[in-house]
Structure formats: C-alpha cells, structure tokens
Design goal:
This protein is 13% helix and 26% strand. It has 138 residues and is α/β, with parallel strands linked by helices. A hairpin with a 2-residue loop joins strand 3 and strand 4. The longest helix is centred in the first third of the chain and has 14 residues. The radius of gyration is 18 Å and the shape is globular. 25% of the residues are buried.
C-alpha cells in the first residue's frame, strides 16, 4: 500500500523554449551561423532554443557544386552555446569523407550529435544522394 506524502513537493520552474524561425541562405554557413548567434543572444533567458533542420547550410544542397564542410568542433558552431540556452541546430556534418544530416545539441561548450536515420528519397527530397544514412542499432 502506498501512503500519501504529507510534505508538499516543490513545483518545478517552467521550461522556457525558443523556436528559432530562420530562412537559411543556401551554402552560406558563416552567414547562417552569425544569424543564429544573433538570434540566440535575443533569447538568452530561455532554457532551450531549437533551430530548423539544416539551419547552417540551407536545405537543397543538391543545387550546390561545393557544399561547405562543417565539423562539430568548428569554433563558430561551438560558440552558439555561449549565449545561455542549450541549442539544437541542424547541420550538414562533415566527418572524414562522409556527410550526415545531423542535429547538434550544444550546451555551453559541450556538443553532442544526433544523425538522421531515415533519409527521404522522393520528390525534391533526395537526401540519400547527399547524406550518409546512420545504421540502426536495434
């Protein structure tokens, strides 16, 4: 039998989330990172900020002849964590000779990554032509 607790449980503070609506310029990684940094400075009091998929590169990478490389260690990417909130930002991650459609989770100077598992291959979304799928672990 479970007995009710007589002591009051303190209420957790609300989670403040900012959704960053951007229009990334195709292939302009440094410009897109600068815009994200500026927007993050405006939501510094939030706990979490979420940017769109491929916010660093723009979406239709197939129209570019040379896609700029971006690693998770890039100082401009890591620097997005200095504004206060943890941030989730979509990027075309370059690792050796592979490219992934990834989401970087940046909290302070810590950067983690989630790579897209299921890449669409229909209509204007031909992601398998441009990104390596991540093998499922289950």
């Amino acid at each position: 039998m479970i007995t009710p607790r007589s002591e009051a449980v303190p209420e957790a503070p609300p989670l403040r989330v900012a959704l960053l609506q951007t229009a990334p310029r195709l292939g302009d990684v440094s410009g897109n990172l600068a815009e994200l940094s500026q927007r993050l400075s405006q939501v510094a009091r939030c706990d979490l900020a979420v940017a769109p998929e491929l916010a660093t590169h723009g979406y239709h990478l197939g129209s570019l002849s040379n896609v700029p490389r971006l690693s998770l260690a890039d100082p401009a990417l890591v620097g997005l964590g200095r504004h206060g909130p943890a941030v989730v930002v979509g990027l075309a991650e370059s690792v050796r000779h592979h490219r992934y459609n990834s989401a970087a989770i940046i909290d302070g100077e810590r950067v983690d990554v989630q790579r897209k598992l299921y890449l669409p291959t229909y209509g204007p979304w031909e992601e398998r032509k441009h990104f390596r799928p991540v093998a499922s672990t289950s």
